[in-house]
Fold each of these.
Amino acid sequence: MKKIKNRCYKNREMSWLQFNGRVLEEADDISVPLCERLSFLSIYQTNLDEFFMVRVGALTDQMHLSAESRDNKTHMTAGEQISAVLKQARLMGGEKDRVYASLMTSLEAEGVRLVNFSSLSHEEGKAIERYFDTEISPLLSSIVVGKKQPFPFLKNKEIYAVAVMESKNVKEKIGIIPCAPGLFSRLVPVGSKPGAFMLAEEIILHFLPKVFKNYKIYSKSLIRITRNADIDNEQIYDEDLDYLEQMEKVIKRRRKLAPVRMEYTRRLDGDVTEKLCGYMNLRQNGTFYSESPLDLSFFSDIRDILRNRESLFFKRRSPQKPAGADESRSILSQAAEKDILLMHPYESMHPVIRLLHEAAHDTSVVSIKMTLYRLARESKIVNALIDAAENGKQVDVLVELKARFDEENNIEWSRRLEEAGCHVIYGLDDLKVHSKLCLITRKTSEKIEYITHVGTGNYNENTAKLYTDLSLITANPLIGKDAALVFQSLSLGQTVTDSRCLLVAPNCLQNRIIEKIERQRRLALEGRPAYIGIKINSLTDKTIIDALIRASMAGVKIDMAVRGICCLQSKIPALTDNIRVISIVGRYLEHSRIYIFGLGGESEIYISSADFMTRNTLRRVEAAAPIYDKKIKKRICSAFALMLADNVKAREQEADGSYRRIPALTEPVNSQEIFYELAYAAAENRPSPYSSLMETALYNLTSPYADSGPFTEASAGQCPPQDNNTRPSENNPRFTGGGNTENIMQEEIIINETVPESDSCEKNGKKDSLYSGHIEKEKTNNNGSFPVPAVNESIRRKSGGLPPLSF
């Protein structure tokens, strides 16, 4: 039995760092407007902060709890992963400093600059000193660490000025001053220099001798601590607390967890660094020197200063009225006639809000049921639900309080919903509810009707302007019945064990995905056209990765647009050479999830809330909705084809694991900008020059499947046939409870050696992973290895030869 080792897998932490490196590339890209480059560099820093808080925090815990536990793809221990992460993060820190310096040089050309004391005249220095004495010094709190004053608690991500000093009686002391964010402006104007500023923390650092008057300072620096945020709410479970109180306790405890990183801006003596690390119980390899400011949030103030210079910003865009929805008619009535697809941010979220408001006042509507994960601060969605409850509708809302870093906002909204008379459910004990699902039930004299909304993104009006997402409004009764089953199960604290149309995690999503991948694999082995197209944020689920590798070896053409983590290595000869992986990082955060199985007449297309991560497929409640409408199928495939043709913001994964920009051999294709131009054209009822580009991209993608016929659609109330031999059921336990597909194949080649291992270095079975700008915790089980079929090379050549996209 031939065994192929780890060449097909990438470590998830290193893959995430690669993604953040692509964000850094946008900050360094001179074709991006200057003020937008500032935003990308700030996003890079914020992303890295969360990565250390969650992922490095979890690995640090794992290293102490189970030092020999290894991830199931690269077989690295937690300690080995931390070492690799710190090494790469240090290299990227140097690149960040270079990009920052370049941006500051560009800002000087626009009349904005940060200055230091060496560049000030005597009069300017005196003016800054007076400002310090009158505006800053009275607000400072100084601490001298000693026998009577222990080392203070340093707040997460806040900046402190630290001084190493001595007095006549004491050889060495450490003085600390919080730089008090919010008490004074960080950008301090230098009066005689228009557009010149100093950072408040640099002023505080300079005038430390005025604060510690009786000491001689011989070393000083600004420092910033990043604390572990990987807290398990089950560890502090108290049966005497209700769930809201328990989550509030989680939030308070998170703020006090151990440091995992210290950044500093001045070179410190090794003994001083060792002493600081000792006080905080931090390893010295967790310290990072930075030549750029420790917090780049002041970039937003610089953007405001330059706001009137349009050339320094992206072209102003606003979501357009959707082509598939008539603003002059009721959304409820339109949904009853046909399915409606919305593409955000290009199309407005307003039809979804209208749908809820109409339901709140429609006399035939008896109930509204909805899952909420991340909400806007001023949520129109919640206001519509409150309106419905006050109008006597039955409103059931599941508010996921475990949405990391959004817990406080969700707690506040859940209280307001309860006060309005809504029935609020606070998630499930062991699973996050991440599905984006809304069910409106109407009762007429003739029958009960369902209107279902399924989305790939949150019910959040603010992020709907920044994230790319899809949402479907449909009156399909079987989708409605599946949605009703989901809500019924959630209300009982249970999960769906079977569904007819929707793919619903944790019990019937991963297994159904495997079925559909295997079907394409079988088609390829028969010499018939086979295709898989996937657009997701992250790919870590080894079960699905192994199924994709098997499909590639059988000759299935696989295109994947994976924005962030991708633990699958493409382009490896005889293994993954039929897989192409791209990542689009641009103006908008790619967030939609699309699954395509086959093209042409027998294609199956889904939009989903779930990435292909174990946390999504097995440890969350997720929902993927089938697309039945022929026009919508074509629209989604056209959009996917255009993304694959992107040669401006897309990077392609190479066989060595690196990502490279795709050379623009023909005209530039920026998919996000083209989608917006198409949305504007549709809203204005005019032709778009990009329509032919979309048609060409779709033709290039689908032409090998011309014999399969055009896109087909299911009739009203009809779901596509399922393979009853592989649907979860009591009679077929090998798929029940989350997709154990060990026995699905019995071929000869093994992808990976079977060793005792976990899906990732775990803490009591729990892990963290990136979610859409947030790095989230996940649980998983051991997945083992999968058999891979030997492939006849003639079959591979016959079924795998799709032409590349070209224009």
Note: Residues 233-247, 721-774, 776-807 have pLDDT under 50 and may be disordered.
Amino acid sequence: MAATRNTISGGLFLNAVIQSHTVTVRLPPQVTPALSGAPPRTEAFTGRDDELSMLLGLLDPAPDNGAATRAEPDRPRAALVTGLGGAGKTELALQAAHLARERGWFPGGVLFTDLRGYADLPCHCDVPGHAEQHGLDEGPSHDRAAQGRQRGARPGEVLGELLRALGLDPERVPSGTQDRSRLFATVLDAYAEQGRPILLVLDNASSAEQVRPLLPGTGKALITSRHTLDVGARLLDLGMLAPGAAIGLLARALRLARGDADTRVAREPAAAADIAGLCGGLPLAVRIVAALLAADPARPLRAMAEDLEEAATRLDELSYEDRGVRAAFELSYRHLEAEEARMFRLMTAAPGPDLSVETAAVVADREPRGARRLLEALHRAHLVERGGAYGRWRMHDLVRLYAEERARDQAGPDRHEEACDRLLDHCCARARAAGAWLSLPEAQARREAQARREAQARPEAQLQRESQARREEFASREEAVTWLDAEGRTLVAAVTAAAGRGDRARSHALAVDLAPYFEFRQRTGDWITTALAAVDAAGRLGHHAELAAAMTLGNAYRLARRYDESAAQLRRALGLARDDRARSPVLHNLGLTYLRMGALAKAEACHRRDRRICALAGDLRGRAQAAVALGDALRARRRHPEAAKMLTEAVTLLQRLDGLGLGNPTALMHARVNLALTYLAGRPDRTPTYILWQLCAALAAARDLDDRHAQALIFMNLSTAYRNRCAACHGPSALAWGRRAVTLFEELGDSYHRARALTALGLAAGPEEARRSLAEALSIFEALGAGRECREVRALSRADRTEPPRREACTADESEQVRDWVDDLPHAVLRGDDGRLGDVLIPGCTIG
């Protein structure tokens, strides 16, 4: 090997290294073997085109000159590829390094070194009491974490190896890490100045302290790590392969091993997709499966998929010779501090696809800030991922299986069962408090929340509070709904988890308390799932629990349009009710189901009986709700004058209750919509503006309640109401609101009402759009088995609607100002300009 000579002038000698004013480094004429000795890349590499392009864009020397540099002055010279163990970080870096050298960007070669940052680590993370012995409470301090993670190859040792690989005489390599780092940077710069830049690849780094002394001064470097390190590099978080890419990797690996004759992926595409899904897109897992299949060419993919389906043994299956998914995760786990590892294990106590900081704080019995710091540490280790929203976290499916194994091993020291109990208590308390804002008058919900807060503030109660993280109350309806939206999937999973643990009381209570939310958000599937769990749990909890569960399931079935099942459950609930107070809500809901079934006389009878019970009990709120439902039943029976009278009574009564702080904005919204529809069916020509006004007043309530389903229904009815007022003057408005209804129902995933909105749009649109809309509505109704609706749409499709629209309601002397006011009213409401509802521009229009 040719020697490298340093010619020094004017410096200070420190052993064999020099801090000098001028250093001239004479380099060997040939590239040493070490510079071209990077590990080979694999031919099965696939699915990382975007990530590879990003790295190559960073390594490309062309942008370092000219306009590109001016456009990106802070372009880093190093890239850090991070990700979960087995994600393919090293392979990506090697692919980029080899391509960069092939393109002539680094004629000096590639220096590759494995820093062994995760090898041979002692595991203290499972030792009971380890965190307490070190005074840990709310997460690791940065200083202690840094000291504990300087593992693997030491920077000084690596620098010595690199300097020798660069051709430096071993006797001239200084002893100190800092001196070696300076010399290393000098040598790399010298190579670059002579037109032979070298690419440095630092694989498997575990800490910033391990990397910083190795970074070149002006050269470029690729770094891989399971942790996100602060080393001034461009970050590339390597995620999982997309399903198609994972299948492609499996097929490519099999072809490389067995040749083109192995066509199992092509022959069994469904099984290949299942394998990719069970591997979670983790390249290491896919490669292990490919190796197992290659070793047994007679093994069908379906058999492999079936072996992987059992969660308890999946990690056992994902092992081949010296490679294993469990082993890959073990290296990252052993790198954790004790409290981080405990959080990692206890996260498995939280059911559902992800969890919030609040939930993590509950299961770990920590304050939210401490829990957040622990989650962020796990995220830096790529053992958890960020969820769909800020503050939510999730695990890769295979990582969760590994975490569950570790949790079982440490269930006693971690007090895992206590963590599960804490979480269920928390979910029940929060769901009950949130549900109150949806089912009680706002003023009453606010008073009860304040009373509970004051009770908790008393000294004896304060001693019983476990943590601020588990506060139960909400300051407003909006806050309660926001929490329910965020935690909905966790709460559904908690109902099932409680049932699985034999905890019938909490499974039942949580399911019943979630019912108002599921109805509000139209979450039919979740409602039925939890209601069935409640019915199953109620059998041993007494007749009150059975009644509540039967009514909950009956209402869920009604929302799902499973009316016979709904009626059966509600009739069962009625039989369980032992007094009129219990019968009243059951009658109300049974009447609603009968109305949907078309059993109009039964619906009317139920609502009249309910209204009579409420009147005798002095229950004004119940009486108002019964009047709304009764008015709707009378409208369906085409008894429009009676319906209008009943609904007007309901509106008046609900407004009175609102003034007393006992209002029900949802019921008032429904009353206004039903009143508008009653006039639309019974007196369309005499009250067209009044109809629109009531719909807009209802729209203001739907906006305030954030009830998007109600908004969509009102949009659909606005289309009909504008067409009723005057198709000639308000045709564009009728068309616009019809389209908005169709779009919103599609966003909400409500096929039935989307078909209804398409029907309304078909009546407002021009011939071609009307034909398309009605055809699509018919197709949806046919798929849903909605026979009556299919007949109606077919009749509309056959009708001759080629005549130009007539001025049904407008008068010749109506001012343009009035027409503009009418057209703009719903837009004004959505803008929050409720004052427009009080404008008196329509003579003879009775408002309120």
Note: The mean pLDDT is 85.
